[in-house]
Amino acid sequence: AMDGVPPPTSPTALSAYVAVSQLLGLTLLATTGAWLGRYRGGVAWHSPLQFNAHPLCMVLGMVFLQGDALLVYRVFRHEAKRSTKALHALLHGLALLIALVGIIAVFESHRTKGIPDMYSLHSWCGMATFVLYLLQWFLGCGFFLFPGASFSLRGWYKPQHIFFGITLFILSITSCLLGITEMLLFNISDSYSHFVPEGILANTLGVLLVAFGLVVGYVLTREEWKRPPLAEEMALSMDFKTLTEGESPGG
User: Fold this and answer.
1) Statement: residue 239 has pLDDT above 70
2) Which domains does the chain have, with CATH numbers?
3) What coarse category fits the chief subcellular location reported for this protein (predicted)?
4) What is the DSSP track for 119-180?
5) Using the 8-state DSSP alphabet, how is residue 50 labeled?
6) How far is it, in rounded angstroms, from Cα 186 to Cα 53?
7) 62 neighbors 172 (Cβ within 8 angstroms)
8) For residue 55, which of 204, 169, 172, 180 has the smallest C-alpha distance?
9) What gap in Å lies between CA 228 and CA 21, rounded to an integer?
10) How far apart are CA 205 and CA 143, in angstroms?
């Protein structure tokens, strides 16, 4: 340390938590695949197994990829801000596309089997989360990725974008937990209370979802792990403020 200023937190701790998050994420994807493959017959489109694409796509898109998109600004701390923004938006966009495939799968499966849509708490929470997530993505691209929004407007919206980003991640995990419970009650309601292997595996998936969310949330809420602004970014920010607000850089 110089002049009595403590040294910054070692990035090793950040790297360790990010590595744990990825290990948990890959494990929950593998667990989802194992559950669907071992006990639900696997995944196939335009068949009685089409529904199984729904939980797989939602865990992959709305949890794993969304979590990774949120971590982008912590992982790529010293890369150009524009590139980091583009990767952040790209991962969220990919998550939306995969989730859309999952939504199509469940609606088509319900129509084929004559099952009513949108009556359960899981479906209400899940659809609301997806719609809000899509809106959040469009607003984020409009405010931060493409030119147009003024400096003051960006400054006002940024805290809202961060808050709703974390909130939607929590809602996504919550919707998945509701979906897991719903699937178990539909498929093994008679044996679930006897600790059958499928129930234990699905419960384990739920625990992994919560653990992934907790680790990602911890990384996102550590103030000392926030991405520090680069000198050139601060200069560009002042220039942008001058152009959009008509103020001098020192004003």
Assistant:
1) no
2) 32-222 (1.20.120.1770)
3) membrane
4) -SHHHHHHHHHHHHHHHHHHHHIIIIISTTS-HHHHHHHHHHHHHHHHHHHHHHHHHHHHHH
5) G
6) 17
7) yes
8) 180
9) 22
10) 36
